[in-house]
């Protein structure tokens, strides 16, 4: 079966996510309704809404977030938790790529999920964990990256990640205590 030239232009790859549209309309009783839905394009969505008994009044692409990606920035606590999870899974014999996949899919913060997904893709493509995390210098400081590099070279990555997790967790606890101590005099 041959694909015509025009059909090839409109076909989207199976792994490409469909765009999201926001819509407003009225049902058969005249009640106003609104929502968002994935669809190939505006016309397909209008037809789908009509099939559901909704007369669309507005259908437009969902606007992208004004300030970059949705979600909060990746916090040092999340990096500490990431390190703890990686160390635990690696000690249990879970391969690095699978560990990254599990961690990435389990995060509520979309930025953290996206970052872990990018790291997983790099490692899956043949990069070392050190090379993959080096693309995120804001989240993984120089000490973190160098310790991971040394751990990979010595073959003790899970132990190094466990040590990093302890260090990061203790650092976050200490930061919390300092903040409390600084705010305590202001409260009296």
How are the SSEs ordered, and which strands pair?
Elements: H1 5-10, E1 20-26, E2 32-38, H2 42-51, E3 55-61, H3 76-91, H4 96-105, H5 110-124, H6 129-133, H7 142-154, H8 157-187
Antiparallel strand pairs: 1-2, 1-3
Helix pairs in contact: 3-4, 3-8, 4-5, 7-8
Verbal overview:
The model is unreliable at 1-15 (pLDDT under 50). Strand 1 and strand 2 form a beta hairpin. This protein has a three-stranded antiparallel β-sheet, covered by helices on one side. It folds into two domains: 11-61; 76-187, Receptor-associated Protein (Up-down Bundle), CATH 1.20.81.30. It has helices at 5-10, 42-51, 76-91, 96-105, 110-124, 129-133, 142-154, 157-187; strands at 20-26, 32-38, 55-61. The protein is mainly alpha-helical and 188 residues long. The protein has eight helices and three strands, in the order αββαβαααααα.
Core attributes:
single chain, 188 residues, mainly alpha, Receptor-associated Protein, 2 domains, three-stranded antiparallel sheet, 8 helices, 3 strands, 56% helix, disordered N terminus
């Amino acid at each position: 079966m041959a694909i015509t030239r025009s059909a090839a232009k409109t076909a989207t790859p199976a792994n490409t996510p469909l765009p999201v549209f926001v819509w407003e309309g009225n049902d058969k009783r005249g009640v106003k309704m609104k929502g968002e839905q994935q669809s190939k394009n505006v016309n397909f969505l209008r037809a789908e809404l009509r099939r559901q008994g909704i007369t669309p009044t507005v259908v437009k692409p969902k606007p992208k977030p004004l300030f970059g990606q949705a979600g909060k920035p990746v916090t040092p606590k999340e990096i500490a938790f990431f390190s703890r999870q990686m160390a635990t899974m690696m000690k249990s014999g879970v391969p690095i790529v699978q560990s990254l996949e599990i961690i990435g899919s389990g995060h509520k913060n979309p930025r953290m999920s996206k970052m872990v997904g990018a790291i997983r893709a790099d490692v899956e493509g043949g990069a070392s964990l050190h090379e993959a995390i080096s693309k995120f210098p804001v989240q993984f400081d120089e000490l973190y990256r160098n310790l991971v590099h040394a751990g990979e070279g010595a073959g003790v990555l899970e132990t190094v990640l466990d040590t990093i997790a302890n260090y990061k967790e203790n650092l976050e606890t200490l930061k919390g205590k300092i903040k409390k101590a600084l705010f305590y005099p202001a409260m009296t």
